[in-house]
Amino acid sequence: MNTPSLFISGGLNLPPPEIKICFCSLFFYFFSFCCYRAMKILVAVKRVVDYAVKIRVKPDKTGVDTQNVKMSMNPFCEIALEEALRIREAGFAKEVVAVSIGPSQCVDTLRTGLAMGADRGIHVETNSSFLPLTIAKILKSLAEVENPGLIFLGKQAIDDDCNQTGQMVAALLGWPQATFASKVVLDKDKHVATVDREVDGGLETLCVELPAVITTDLRLNQPRYASLPNIMKAKSKPIKKMTVQDLKVDVKSDIEILEVTEPPKRKSGVMVSSVDELIDKLRNEAHVF
Amino acid sequence: MMMMMMMQRLRRSEEFIRFGFTSLINLRPNKNSVSRSLSGFVNHYDTKGKLFESKNGNHYNTELHHRCLGKNLGMLQQYKCFGSSSASQIERNPLFSSLDSKDVSYFKEILGDKNVVEDEERLETANTDWMQKYKGSSKLMLLPKNTEEVSQILQYCDSRRLAVVPQGGNTGLVGGSVPVFDEVIINVGLMNKVLAFDEVSGVLVCEAGCILENLATFLDTKGFIMPLDLGAKGSCHIGGNVSTNAGGLRLIRYGSLHGTVLGLEAVTANGNVLDMLGTLRKDNTGYDLKHLFIGSEGSLGIVTKVSILTQPKLSSVNLAFIACKDYLSCQKILVEAKRNLGEILSAFEFLDSNSMDLVLNHLDGVRNPVSSTENFYILIETTGSDETNDREKLEAFLLKSLEKGLVSDGVIAQDINQASSFWRIREGITEALQKAGAVYKYDLSLPVEEIYNIVNDLRGRLGDLANVMGYGHLGDGNLHLNISAANYNDKLLGLIEPYVYEWTSKHRGSISAEHGLGVMKANEIFYSKSPETVAIMASIKKLLDPKGILNPYKVLPHSLISH
Known about the structure:
The complex is a heterodimer.
Chain A lengths: L2 H6 L8 H21 L2 E5 L2 E3 L21 E3 L1 H15 L5 E8 L3 H11 L3 E6 L6 H15 L3 E5 L10 H9 L3 E11 L4 E8 L2 E8 L2 E5 L9 E2 H7 L4 E4 L32 H10 L5
Parallel strand pairs in A: 1-4, 1-6, 4-5, 5-12, 6-10, 7-10
Antiparallel strand pairs in A: 2-3, 7-8, 8-9
Helix pairs in contact in A: 4-7, 5-6
Chain B lengths: L1 H17 L3 H4 L75 H11 L4 E2 L2 H8 L13 E2 L4 H14 L3 E4 L16 E4 L6 E4 L5 E5 L4 H11 L1 E2 L12 H6 L7 H4 L2 H4 E7 L5 E4 L13 H4 L8 E8 L1 E2 L3 E9 L2 H14 L4 E8 H10 L13 E9 L2 H18 L4 E4 L3 H12 L1 H8 L1 E8 L5 H12 L4 E7 L4 E8 L4 H7 L2 H8 L24 H14 L13 H4 L2
Parallel strand pairs in B: 2-4, 3-4
Antiparallel strand pairs in B: 1-2, 5-6, 6-10, 7-11, 8-9, 8-10, 12-14, 12-15, 13-14, 13-17, 16-18, 17-18
Helix pairs in contact in B: 12-15
C-alpha cells in the first residue's frame, strides 16, 4: 500500500544502474512531489460531553448522564483538526478528511469540523459506544481505504481519558507514532515530520517517517472559530456514511464496564482540641503509625 | 456672605492640615496610581453654585480626607475625588447624630461582638466603591444575620437619628453603596441562605445577601436559571440587584426585575418589617408597594428577602459574534433578529472598535474572534429547547444577513468554551477600562437610532483629549458611554458634563438606564424626570423615612430632601 516506499527502498529487479538511478530518482521526486501534493490527512474527531458541563452519573450507575447535556467536539480533536488544516494551508497536503464514529448526532460534530475547514467527512454510524481498541480497528480499516499520509488524533478524549486510540492505530498499521505533539514541522523533501513531544521531563523531539500517526496536545495550536463563510461552504461538503460491517471490523469487545460511580465526596477537615487527640486520631483513624 | 464663610472654612481646614494630620493622607490605598483631581460640585439648578467654580482653582492635596474630628469642626466637608461635576458641594447634614461608644455597645449587644466591625482595614474596603471613585469615612459596619436584627438596628438608628448606608456586594457604579460621610454601614452579606425553591413554578425565595452567581449555581443543579445576569455576578447580592433594579444581559428576553420579582420583605427606616414576600404570579390586591422598593437604591427601606421567578434552563444556547461596517447595519440586524430569531433571542449586545481594542490590549488570553477589524461588533445569543432547530435558525439568519451585506464577517461558537471567550470580550470591557486609567462612565437610555450619534458627537467634542467608547445592550436601547483618559482632570469633565446629560435630555432619554442615581447623579434627575414627579418622590421619601436616615445624600436632589 505504501507505494512511495517501493521507490525509497530502491525496487527489486533493476535495469542498469545509471539509467535506473536517473529514472528512479526522477520518478521518486515526481512521485513524492505528487504524493505530497496529493497527501490526504485523516483526522479522527469524537463527540463528547462539553468540557464546561458539570457531569452527573446516572442513578443506575451504568454511565454518565448524557441526556439533555451539551455535546461538542473533544477539545484535543479540535486541536488535531486545526493542525491538519494548517498543514494543508501551508501546501503540504491536498485534503483534510474528518471522521467520527458514533450515533447519528455525530453528524453535528462533523459539520463543525467541515465549518472549520475540513474538505469532507466520514461518519461511521453505530449506536454502541466503542472502546479504544475497536475504534483503532475501525480507523485502521479506514486508513487502508483512504490512504492518508498522516493521521491526526487528539491525545485523549475528555470523557474517558484513555489516551490509547492513537497509539493503537499506529501499532495496528505498523506506522510510526508521535504522541503529545506540541509542535509539528513537515519536511517536504525528506518525507518526515519533526515533532516536539511534551513528556514528563520536558520536550522530546522525534523525527517520524510518513505515513505516521500524530496525537495532539494542548499547546500545539489554538483552534480557529467557525466563520460564517465557512459555515456556508460546509453545507455543500459531503459526509459519507459507512457502517462497521462495510469496513469488516470485528467489534466484539473483551472489556465490560461493570459500574460507574462518583468519587467519594471530600470530607471537611476536623479541628482537634489537643495534641493528645491529634495523636489518637492519627493512630486510630488515619492509621499513620 | 456665603463665599466668605466657605473661604473661612477652607482656611481652617488648611490649618488642620498643616498641624500634622499628615497621617490621614496615607489612608487611601493607591491601587490605581492615578492622579485624582479635586472637583467641587456645581449644581445647575442652584445659581449659587456658580460661585463655587472659583474653588476649582485650589487643588488641595487629593489624598486628604477629614475624619470626624469631634463636634468642633462643625461642617464636615467631603471632597469627592474625580467625581461628577454635578451636585452642590455636599455638606454633612448637621441633624444627623454622630456615633458614640454607647451606640457601639448597643449594637454589640444585639449582634454580638463579631458582627460589629470597627477594624480599619475592613472599613477601608467597605468605605470605598468598586470604581475607587467614592470614599466615605464610616467608623462602623454592622453585619446582621436576620431580619429581626436589621429591624432592631434600624429602630435604634431612627431613634438616635444615625444615618445608615445599606450595603450589598458594593459593586455599584454610581457611589450608592458607600457612605458619603460617617454613616453606619449595614452590610447584609451574612444573610445568604436560600429559603425555598419550588421546582414546579420556579419561584425562588432567598435572603438579600445571596450572591447572584451562587444562586445561579444552585439553580443550575435544579435545571433553572436566574432571570438576570450581569458582569458583577461574582460579587453582587440579589438584595442589591433588586434595590437598584439591575438590568443586565438577559433583560431583552426575561424582562426587568419589576416583572420577575414576585415579592420582597423590606425593613423601613423606623424598623417596621414590611412583609410583601408573596410567591404568587398574580396578586391584584391593593397598591403593589414592592415596586417602590425595587430601584429605590436603599433610600426607602432595606430589602431583606426576595422572592423571584426563575426560568427553566433550556438546553440549546448558541452564540454568534459578528462584525459590521456601520451603525446603520447594526440597527437593521437588530430589527431582523427580533423578527427572524424571535422567541429564541436571549441577548443582543454591541461594542465598537475602540472597546474591542481596549479589551485586546488590557486583558490576557483574549483574541478577536473575527479575523478582520471592523467598526462594530455584535453578540447575538439564542436560547431554546431544540438544538438543531435553533442552530439552523441562527445560521440561516446570519447567512441571509451576510448576503444582504449587513454583516461583513462573523463566527458561531462551537462549544461552551468558545462562547465564554466571546462573552469575556463584552463583559471584560469594564475591567479593561479600570486598567486603562481614568474612566468617566455614563449609562444612557436612548432611542436606538440615536445611540451612536452621541458617541460621535462626544468624540468630535473631546478630540485628542480622551478615548470615547460606546458599547451596551443594543437590544434594550441602553448605551454604556465610557470616556477613558490617562488622568482625571476637570477640563475634561467640564467638556463631558453637562453636555452628555443635556444631549440625553434633548432626546427624551434616561441619564441612568440601569446603574441608578446613587450619589453621582443625585442632582441630575431633572434631566429625565419632571419636577412634579420628583416632588411626589420626595413626599414618598418623607413618608417612609421622615428623618432621612436611609442612604442620605443620594438618589433625590439634595435641595428637596435636606432639612
